[in-house]
Structures are given as C-alpha cells and as structure tokens.
Amino acid sequence: MAESMQECVLDGSEDDDVHVSLNGVIHMINNGFTHGNAIFDQKRTYSPLLSAGYSFMTFLNSSMTNEADHMDAALKDLKITIKQCAETEGKSVFEKKPKLVRIENKNNQHSWVMSLDEVLQRQIIIADCYLYMAILTFMKQDLRSYMKGGWLLRKSWKLYAKLYREIGKLCDERARADPAAWNLNPATRAGDFPRESENISRPDLIPQNSEGFDEEAPNEEAVFDVALDEETQDSRTFGRRSPSLPALTDDISTTTLLRLRGSVSFGFGIFNLCISIIPPNLLKIFNFFGFEGNRDRGLSALHNASHSGDMKAPIAALALLWFHTVIRPFFSPDSSAADISEASRIIDRKDSHCHDSGLYLYFRGRLSRLRGELRDALALYERAVSDATTQREVRLVCLYECGWLRMMLLEWDEALLPFQKLRRESKWSLCYYIYVVALLTGSGPIESTMVCDAEKLADTQNLLAKVPKLATKKNSNELDAFVARKAIKLSALKGVLTSEDYSLGILELLYLWKSLPLRDSALMTSIYGFCNRYSRMEFMAVNLLVQGMAAECLGRRDEAVQLLSMCQSCESYGDTYCQAYAGLELAMIRLQTDKVEGKRLINIVKTKFNKYDFDHRLQMRIHSIQQELK
Question: Which of 72-81, 294-303, 538-547 shows the highest mean pLDDT?
C-alpha cells in the first residue's frame, strides 16, 4: 500500500533519482496520489528524470479528465521539460549535475561531454514528451489539432526509432561481451529486443544521420513552425550540439542499460499500438501515408518496459491493461478469451501490490464487464469511487463507469445520479452530460409504454434546449455535434413524446459505444421486446439497428439480417450513420458462414459511405477487423 512505501531520499548518488521517481509513480497508482504528486512537485528541479515524472503526472491526470485547463497545464509542463532536457551547454538548470566523461581526439586534445547514459536518458524523455503532447493535442479533435499532433507524433517517432536501435545495439554488444553475466540478470529476459540487423519499421522513416536525431526538411519546418513554440523548437538542436553516440565511450552498467531499454520500450510500444489502430485514410492527415504501426511489436515492447526498473514500468502494465480491456474490445469484432486471459495475468501479477488501487479496480471492473459480470463490475467501480477521495481524476472516471453500467443494466433511474454528479463536477463535454441526463430524465421502465407527465417533459425539454448552445463553443467536437443534432431532433418531434423516445436514445448510445449487454440474454430479450413495440418513424432506422443486434445476440440470425437490411433501406431522418453501421453488422454476420463474401461487404462499407456520425470511429473499427482477418 502507499502508506508502506519507503520514504524517498535524494542523497546525491548516481541512481537516487531513479528510485525516487519509481517510488513516486508507485504511490500514485496505490491511491497515494497526493503523496506521489508531492514527490515530483518538490523534486522536479533536481534532475531530468524527476522533471519528466512531474510532467508525466500532469499528462496522465489531464488525459483521464479531458478537461481543457488541465490539458493546457500539462502541455506547458511538457514543453518546460523538453527545454530543460535539451540544454547541454551553459549552466545546468537541475540541482543534480549531469554525469560527464572525458574524450580525446586524434590530436590528444580532450574535452568533457555528457555521458552516454545521460544523453540517452534525456533524449528518451524528449521523445516521451513529444508523444504525450501529440496525444493531448489529438484529444482536441479539430483539423488544426490533427495537423499539429501529427507533426509532434512524427518528431517523437524519429527519436524513438533511433534510440530503440541504438540501445538494441548496446544490448547486443553487452550480451556478446559477457553472456554469462547478461543472462544471469532476470531483466534481460523480460522481452524481445531488436537485433542490430532488424528493421523496426519502414527504413525511409528512420533517420540515418547519427549526428542529429531530428533532421527535418526545410520545407516541413516552414509549414509546421506555426504549430510549435520556442520551448519545443529548442530540442531540435539537442542532437546536433551533442557529440555523436559512437564518440561517447564510457561504460554503462548493465542495470542502467536495462532500465534505459525499458524506458525507450515504453514510448516505442505506446507509439506502435496507437498507430496500429489508425486506418490509412487518417494517417494521411498526419503526413504518415503508407506507414503502419506494428501491434505485436508494440505489445512486446510494453511487456519489456513493464518488467524494467524504470519509473514507467508500472505505467507500462497499465497501458497493456488499457489496450486489452478498452481499446481492442472497442475496435475489434469481439474480444477473444486470450485477450481477457492476458489482462487477467497482469492483474494477478500485480494484485498483491495494487489490490486496493483505484486504477487497478478500474481495470478489474473492465474485465468483469467483458466477461458479462455487470453486477460485479458495478461493485468494483462503486468501491473505487468510495476509496478515491484524494484522486479526483480516478473518481470521475469510475463514477462515469457506474452510470454507464446502470444504463447497460437498463436501470435508468439509478443511472441518473452518477451523470448528474458528472454534470456538476466534470469540465469535460458538458453538453454530452446534459444530453445523457435529459434522456435519463425522460425515460421510463423499458418494459412499459408511458406518456411523460407535464413536469417531467418540461424538465427534459429545458435540458435538451441547452445542448446545441453548448456544442457551438470553441472546443466542440464530433461527439458534441452528434448530441446537439439529436437534441434538436428530439425537441422538434411532433405529437406527444413518450418515455420510449428517450429510452431508445439511451440504447442508441449503448450501441455506438459497443456497450449493449450482449452476454445477458434476459437484458437483450427486454431490449428486443422494446424495439418490437417502438413505432415512431423518425427514429425507426436507429430502432431497427438496435433490434437487429438484439436478434443476432438471441440467435435469430435470419431475422437479424432482415432487420439490418430494413435499416439500410428505410428513411434515416438524418441518422445516416445507421446505414453504414448496419452494413458492417451484416458483413460480420456473413463472415461467420462465408469469409470471402463477408470481406467483400466490409470493403463496400469502407468505400461507399462517408461523412456520417462517428465515421472515423467506424473506419478505425473496420481497419482493425481487416488487420485481424489477414
């Protein structure tokens, strides 16, 4: 537990900041967020590693809440860390002086330069910061952010590729020089690492200049300088001011080398996983035409990082859980037993150290949800909300899951309270939370048909009227645009509104987030019966899509095909996404009996439909399915 962790002491020894940084991360994971944050806040000026730890903490918090002010603060901290780590001349900004080595040239003249491990550590930190900045920038979800984020992503990749190859070469040399000692160290068997001759991706995207790690063409800098400020631009000359790596001949201990291997493996793994799920049509925006990340290599790199002595080792384990329990199930046809088993193994390995961790409770809840154990998942999230009194970000994320699971259980009234709290406490997408609260307020028991009473109808309409106004603000995105359109459509419906109209809106959200309770036949039977009774034509396309999924889940395959085909042909009344999504669901059904025809139908959906709600999301799902079918 966080309380039993040893106190961090900076004694000036070579690896003191390594132990302190790892200790700070462990505190954070084990519900000691305040303590962990204090460690990095107080010691951020001590060394590059602790500065990186502080900026990583702010990045992690902002990525969990997606709140604009937190994201801006995190971007600022990341830029400061880049500038500090890029400084190799003049007075050091850190209290801990960099390790220096003496080198001589052929004229017997000598000079003092940073040691090889110091150079590698700083460059890894800079690459990490560019990656975190790219992720935060992408989360803003507008064209300028995609362009700027793509540029930052490219900068991080060029550093990772070079560093990954250089450290791999050093590992090979160490293993050949002393194979007995190398093999005795358990960390050397943590995971695969590239051999000297291995191409880690397309060669033309890996910088070949050993003197500079970030040699951009002048025309690229002219285009993208507007997206960077002087703090991030300072790092461009870091590799050029430093001596080339082969010139730094000081010895690195095996422990330090393995830690650096784990450190670069973390960013390299995250990068490969993120790129592997992005379809080619989106990669063109980022100037990555023809480039694909390697999912297996990314998973292997993260596995390596999770067994290292670097401060990011615990985060690497969380990243693997994030991929297996959140990302892959969302974009894949279905989560396989192997994926769930891998996540279970990670949690079992960490259970003795992180049993009460709010973050691990979150992922244990995801596992229960994937198994269809919705009540167990709800209990875990409610426990996490209760325990995370000092971790606002974790509490809000788990509170969201509590509300979402109540929706999956078709318990509309019980789902309302968590979303009302989120509406008050969270700064992320207020229009989305108001829209969900409006649907839950207007809905009723799914088994019955009832007309909303006047007071309830007035409350719901007042809430829906606020959504479009909030969605027109500067930071609106695809989700905001969707809920604004749906709110306007609901408000404009003629006739007497019933609870069924709002209940269908909830089922629509569950479908779009792949959260229909497909493993619970009783719940799916209730959903099927509800859709069978629904009759309002303005939302019939949505109704047929949900009913088709329910029929397929209940084993009524022929009926499911009929319903989904009707969905494709009926009037959409603005819900044009239904045709594309129904087309993919039909293709997935066909895949079970005729793979050739199923693949053909998937390709039709991929190329025929465009400019519909969440089109990028469906394209990412199609891309992931096609990758698994290869």
Answer: 538-547
Give the up-direction half-sphere exposure of residue 288: CA atoms within 13 A in the CB hemisphere: 26
Distance CA 227, CA 151 (A): 8
Q: Which of these, 326, 222, 221, 215, lies nearest to 277 by C-alpha position? A: 326
Instruction: Tell me which of 335-339, 376-380, 513-517, 594-598 is least confident.
Output: 335-339
Report which secondary-structure segment, H or E, holds 117: helix 116-138
Please say whether the beta carbons of 343 and 323 come within 8 A.
no
Cα(14)–Cα(542) distance, integer angstroms: 62
Question: Token pair for residue 199?
Answer: 């191409």
CB neighbour list of residue 499: distance below 8 Å, 6 or more residues apart = 442, 443, 444, 445, 448, 449, 450, 451, 452
Residue 244 has pLDDT above 50, yes or no: no
- pLDDT number for residue 400: 95
Q: Confirm if 303 and 229 have CB atoms less than 8 A apart.
A: no
Which residue carries 């050397």 as its tokens? Answer: 188
Cβ burial of 77 (10 Å; 0-12, 13-18, 19+) is: buried
Give the separation between CA 532 and CA 475, rounded to whole angstroms. 39
Cβ contact 57:33 at 8 Å: no
**Cβ atoms within 10 A of the Cβ of 133, count?**
25
3-state secondary structure of 286: coil
Of 88, 24, 12, residue with least CA distance to 57: 24
Give the residue ranges of DSSP H helices in 409-453: 412-425, 430-442
Over residues 565-615, the pLDDT tens digits come to 999 999 989 899 999 999 999 999 999 899 999 999 999 999 888 888 888
Helix axes 392-408, 412-425, angle to 10 degrees: 150
Q: What pLDDT, on a 0 to 100 scale, did the predictor assign at position 494?
A: 57
Cα 586 to Cα 193, 573, 579, 607, distances in angstroms:
41, 21, 10, 16
Nearest to 493 by CA among 481, 505, 482: 505
Q: Using CA atoms, how far apart are residues 310 and 321, in angstroms rounded to an integer?
A: 18
Assess contact for 156 and 116: CB atoms under 8 A.
Answer: no
Tokens 């949800």: give the residue: 369
Dihedral class, residue 206 (left if φ above 0, else alpha if ψ from -120 to 50, else beta): beta
Give the pLDDT confidence score for residue 626 in this predicted structure. Answer: 85
